[in-house]
Amino acid sequence: MTPMPSSRTRLSPVWRRTLSAGLLTAALALGGCAAMTAQNPSGALKPVNAMAVGEQTRVMLAGADVVAYFTQSKFVKGVPQFQSTHEGVVFHFASAEHKQLFDAAPAKYFPQYGGYCANGLVYGIPWGGDADTWKLVDGRLFIFGGQGSKDAFLLDEKANIALADRYWQQEVSGSNSFVQRAKRLVFKVPHYKSGDELAKAVAAAQGSKP
User: Fold this and answer.
1) Edge-to-edge strands of the sheet including 50-53?
2) Mean of the pLDDT values across residues 188-195?
């Protein structure tokens, strides 16, 4: 049997086509067509942590008010009554004032890494992201896939932000979220840690606190 080439090996055209087909198949297995459509708009924000809400096919963070994190320091659910569409993505707000603030400066309020779990981006994986688990760092909004993911990210916040920024800029931004996810679940980054490993590291760090 011919061995599978490593991620560091220059792939032949045949292998590239085979790998691309395999990743696409894996990507489709990770989510349905509706989710793939919601997360991969044609505009500059691709990919995004969005989903269908009612008749709207692509709502950011399931309708969380992204402005409220900055103005109220808490997670607030937006409503369709106050909404804006930016780069093909719909944003819900809790008030007309928040909508106006967003419309005046969308980039200021847009969550980092398309709203995906910041800890996942440390490993090049755009996946998950719960709107009620978040943190503001130097005016940037980071979303996490639960408290465990947030705790893992905060073990070395500065280094993890640098890693997530790098993978977002070099690999994830502009990609298909499902294909990128499948790729990095197969070809893991050198510093990859499993969920169990991260949980143990968090437990050890928290246990060492006075």
Assistant:
1) 50-53, 56-60, 89-93, 79-86
2) 96
102-158: per-residue pLDDT in tens?
999 999 999 999 999 999 999 999 999 999 999 999 999 999 999 999 999 999 999
Q: Provide the pLDDT for residue 1.
A: 35
What DSSP assignment string belongs to the chain? -PPPPPTTSPPPHHHHHHHHHHHHHHHHHTS-HHHHHHH--SSTT-S--EEEETTEEEEEGGGB-TTHHHHTSS--B-EEEEEEEETTEEEEESSHHHHHHHHH-HHHHSPGGGGSBHHHHTTT-----EEEEEEEETTEEEEESSHHHHHHHGGGHHHHHHHHHHHIIIIITTS-HHHHHHHHHHS--TT---HHHHHHHHHHHHHT--
128 contact partners, CB below 8 Å, separation of at least 6:
49, 116, 117, 120, 145, 146, 149
pTM equals 0.84
d(CA 116, CA 127): 6
